[in-house]
Amino acid sequence: MVWNYQAALITLGITALSAQAATTNYTSTVDPTKITIPDIEQTKSHDPAAQCKYYQPPFTVNPKDWPTSWEIATSNGMNSSAEFTALYNSIDWTKAPNIQPKGMTAAGGLNLQSYDTVNDPDCWWSASQCTKPKKADINPDIVQCLEPNTWGLTYDDGPNCSHNAFYDYLEQNNQKASMFYIGSNVMGWPYGAMRGLKDGHHLAGHTWSHKLMTTLTNQEVLAELYYTTKAIKFVTGVTPLHWRPAQGDLDDRVRWIATQLNLTAILWNLDTDDWAANVVAGVTPETVQQNYKNFIQMGSNGTFNTVGNIVLSHEINNMTMDFAMQNYPEIKKNYKHVVDVATCMNMTNPYVEKSITYPTFEQQVNQNASTATGSGVSPAASGSSSMGTQTTVNGALFIAALFGVAASLF
Ligand SMILES: *[C@@H]1O[C@H](CO)[C@@H](O)[C@H](O)[C@H]1NC(C)=O
Ligand SMILES: *[C@@H]1O[C@H](CO)[C@@H](O)[C@H](O)[C@H]1NC(C)=O
Ligand SMILES: *[C@@H]1O[C@H](CO)[C@@H](O)[C@H](O)[C@H]1NC(C)=O
Ligand SMILES: *[C@@H]1O[C@H](CO)[C@@H](O)[C@H](O)[C@H]1NC(C)=O
Ligand SMILES: *[C@@H]1O[C@H](CO)[C@@H](O)[C@H](O)[C@H]1NC(C)=O
Ligand SMILES: *[C@@H]1O[C@H](CO)[C@@H](O)[C@H](O)[C@H]1NC(C)=O
Ligand SMILES: *[C@@H]1O[C@H](CO)[C@@H](O)[C@H](O)[C@H]1NC(C)=O
Ligand SMILES: *[C@@H]1O[C@H](CO)[C@@H](O)[C@H](O)[C@H]1NC(C)=O
Ligand SMILES: [Zn+2]
What we know:
Keywords: Carbohydrate metabolism, Cell membrane, Cell wall, Cell wall biogenesis/degradation, Chitin degradation, Cobalt, Glycoprotein, GPI-anchor, Hydrolase, Lipoprotein, Membrane, Metal-binding, Polysaccharide degradation, Secreted, Signal. The protein is an alpha/beta fold. It has 13 helices and 8 strands. It has a single domain, classed as Glycoside hydrolase/deacetylase (TIM Barrel). Strand 1, helix 5 and strand 2 form a beta-alpha-beta unit. Helix 8 packs across helix 9 (252-260) and helix 10 (285-298) packs parallel to helix 11. The protein is globular and about 50 Å long. The chain binds 2-acetamido-2-deoxy-beta-D-glucopyranose (NAG) (8 copies) and zinc ion (ZN). One 2-acetamido-2-deoxy-beta-D-glucopyranose (NAG) binds next to loops.
C-alpha cells in the first residue's frame, strides 16, 4: 500500500492562515494495521549477540533517499533533495520567529552565558524550562499527564537490536509506553520500531541524529524532524504527530518549525537521569535508584493528587532497561495509573493515519479496572514473547547498520 499525504494547499500569495501549511509526502509500503515480524533469532532471542546479528529488513532502502546515519539530517545532500526542497519551499519562513541558532561552548555544551535567562525571550527550555511558547502560532509542549495519580511512561533513544527482553516485559504486563525513536536507529533496526507499533506503544520522533536542536540552522532543524518522521512512516506505516528534542533543547524557533510539520513536543516533569549513571561524574546507579524511589513515593504521598507526571527514562542500554523493569512493580503499586502519554491525554489519534487508534484514558482505565492498582509481573518472570511468526517479504540485500556507526550503509 502506498500512502501519500498532501496538506491542504494554500495558494502562494494568500496569507497562510493555518500553521499546518507545510507539504509533506511520506510514502510507505507498510500497512500499520498488518505489521508482520518474522520469527527469527533477532526478533526473539534475549541474548544480545543473537539479537544484534545482521538482518535483512523487509524493504528496499535506497541510500540516496536518506541522510547519513547519526549525522545531521542535511547530510548526504538531503537539503537539496527534491522532496526536501519542496517541503522547505512550502513553508512561509517570513513567519518564523526571528531567533538565531544558539551557540555551543568549547566543551560541546550549550552556551547559556550570552542569553537573557531572566526575560527568556525565546522560551528556551534549556535556559528556563519554559514550555509555553511566547510567539504566536506555535504548539505548546506537553509536560505532564493531566490525569491525577498517573505516571506517564516514556522511553527515549530506541529502537535498538538488543531490546527483546524489555519489550517482552512490557508486553507481559500489558503495559504501553510512549517511545521516542531516533531516526537513525529506526533505519538501523526496523524490526525494533515495527514491534513498538505492533505492541501498541505510542511512537514519536526523537530527531535523526540526536543533536542539540537550538544550535542547528532552520534547514537542519527541519531535516532532523522531517527525516525522522519519514523513517518511522517508512518502517511502520504511521506518521507521528509528537516528538521530543534531545536533552529537551528547544526554543520558539525550533517549536515553530516543528509546528509546520504538525509536530508537538512532549517533554517531562520528572527526570530519572538513568542514562547518566556511571557516565556523568557524580551520578551513580544509586543516584538513579534514589530518583526512582522519590518519584515512586510521590505517587502515594499526595504530590500528584490533582495532576499526573511524565517521567523521562531511556531504553538505551541494559542498565537503563533494568532500572525500568526493577522499579516497575513499585510504580504500579504507588500510582493509580501507569500509561503512555497518548492515552493519558486522550489523544486517540497520535498519527496522521487514522487507521491506528489509542484508547481514551477512560477506556484504558475501565478495561483494566480490576488490576489498575495491582503490582506488575516481576522482571525475573520475563521470558517469552507472543509475537507473531509470519514471514515478511524479501527486500534487496541490506545490511543493517548495527550500533548506529556504519553510516554509509544506508
Ligand atoms: C495536522 O494534524 C491535523 C490534526 O490531526 C490534521 O488535520 C492536519 O491535516 C495535519 N497537517 C499536516 C501537515 O500533517
Ligand atoms: C545544504 O547545506 C550545506 C551545508 O550546510 C550548504 O552549504 C548548502 O548551501 C545547502 N544547500 C542548499 C540547497 O540549501
Ligand atoms: C512525492 O512523492 C512522489 C513519489 O515518490 C514524487 O514523485 C514527488 O516528487 C514527491 N513530491 C514532493 C512534493 O515531495
Ligand atoms: C512526597 O515525596 C517526595 C519524594 O520523596 C518529597 O520530595 C515530597 O516532599 C513528598 N511530599 C509530601 C507532601 O510529603
Ligand atoms: C544499543 O544497545 C546496545 C546494547 O544495549 C548499547 O550498548 C548501545 O549503546 C545502543 N545503541 C544506541 C545507538 O542506542
Ligand atoms: C541485562 O543483562 C543481564 C545480564 O546479562 C540480563 O540478565 C538482563 O536480562 C538484561 N536486561 C535486559 C533488559 O535485557
Ligand atoms: C479524557 O476524557 C475523559 C472522558 O471524556 C475526561 O473525563 C477527562 O477529563 C479527559 N482527560 C484529559 C486529560 O483530557
Ligand atoms: C487490561 O485490558 C486488556 C484489554 O482488555 C487485557 O488484555 C489485559 O489483561 C488488562 N491488563 C491487566 C494488567 O490486567
Ligand atoms: Zn535522547
